[in-house]
């Protein structure tokens, strides 16, 4: 009985399909994308978490000259 009560609390009563499949797909997408997003943000911020515009400008200069760098910048 506790398992069913817990399921009700966690899912707010949603049936397992199709809502559960959609929720799982969204969470999987977010889990896969989070590490690269964190790396991209940390590449452009200083130790205080503020935007480092010198790094941003340097990255943009490289991306303008190199299609691979542009692709890598947009992929992150």
Give a verbal description of the structure.
75% of the residues lie in helices and 0% in strands. By secondary structure, it is mainly α. It has one domain (14-75). Helix 3 crosses helix 4 (67-75). The protein has 4 helices and no strands. The model has no long low-confidence stretch (mean pLDDT 82).
Annotation keywords:
single chain, 76 residues, mainly alpha, 4 helices, 75% helix, 0% strand
* Structure annotation, total helices: 4
Unreliably modeled segments: none
- Percent of residues in β-strands: under 5%
How far is the N terminus from the C terminus?
45 Å
How many domains? The number is 1
Structural class: mainly alpha
Element string (H = helix, E = strand): HHHH
Alpha carbon gyration radius: 20 Å
Average pLDDT metric:
82
SSE diagram, text form:
Elements (H helix, E strand, L loop, with lengths): L1 H10 L7 H25 L9 H13 L1 H9 L1
Helix pairs in contact: 3-4
In short:
With 76 residues, the chain is mainly alpha-helical. It contains four helices and no strands.
